[in-house]
Design goal:
Elements lengths: L8 E4 L5 E2 L7 H29 L2 E6 L3 H4 L5 H21 L4 E8 L13 E2 L5 H4 L4 H6 L9 H12 L7 E4 L1 H20 L1 H5 L6
Parallel strand pairs: 1-3, 2-5, 3-4, 4-6
Length: 207
């Protein structure tokens, strides 16, 4: 505001990953994960809208993740924080659209960032033998570091493109891996909704 006198675009991209079977995660680590990945976004989304509302324009872009749509094994706390970003974004979008403010959720696949860099990733604090018999969590996820398909620079270019659109997407799926993973997860959820539709509607009250 001091430099430009207005805020046109806000991108919430800060975050880190806490990885491990949920039972093995320490409560303080879970709280820090949510504080960074969800509350960090909340604080910025409370700071920017007053400015955008006054100018009757603006675009908020929140970076979620595929795990914020479908959940990933070993990513319970991380996915919870990203599911929170999704719910927050979709709800606030309905409140601020009347002021010309747009909100976009970006759901990337695996991009070659420092998210899994040993200096950044946080691992489970405890070890439960029942889970240890199934897989080595750190070995599995460390092997992904530096081999991710997505190019962050190209994603940045995509963000710039739709930040300039009159009608940008409300949800933008980024990366071919995300495009291949997310639709089947959504379709499976819809199939389950329809499969139990009779039971679902039976819960209506006869008032």
């Amino acid at each position: 505001m001091k430099r430009f006198g207005r805020i046109d675009v806000v991108v919430n991209a800060a975050g880190y990953s806490l990885i491990g079977n949920f039972e093995e995660l320490a409560t303080p680590d879970i709280e820090r994960q949510v504080a960074t990945n969800l509350y960090g976004v909340m604080y910025v989304m409370r700071a920017a809208p007053p400015v955008m509302r006054k100018q009757r324009s603006g675009h908020i872009i929140n970076i979620s993740f595929s795990a914020g749509v479908m959940g990933f094994k070993h990513c319970g706390a991380y996915a919870a924080s990203k599911f929170g970003v999704e719910g927050l974004s979709l709800s606030v979008a309905l409140e601020v659209e009347q002021f010309g403010i747009k909100v976009t959720i970006v759901e990337p696949g695996f991009f070659r960032t420092d998210l899994l860099d040993p200096r950044n990733v946080k691992w489970n604090a405890n070890r439960i033998e029942d889970y240890a018999a199934g897989s080595n969590v750190q070995e599995i996820w460390s092997g992904c570091n530096g081999t991710q398909l997505g190019d962050p620079a190209k994603l940045g270019e995509a963000l710039v493109k739709f930040a300039g659109m009159d009608n940008p997407p409300k949800v933008f799926v980024a990366g071919s891996d995300a495009v291949s993973m997310i639709p089947p997860a959504i379709e499976a959820r819809l199939r389950e909704v329809h499969a139990f539709e009779a039971l679902s509607t039976s819960t209506d009250g006869a008032f």
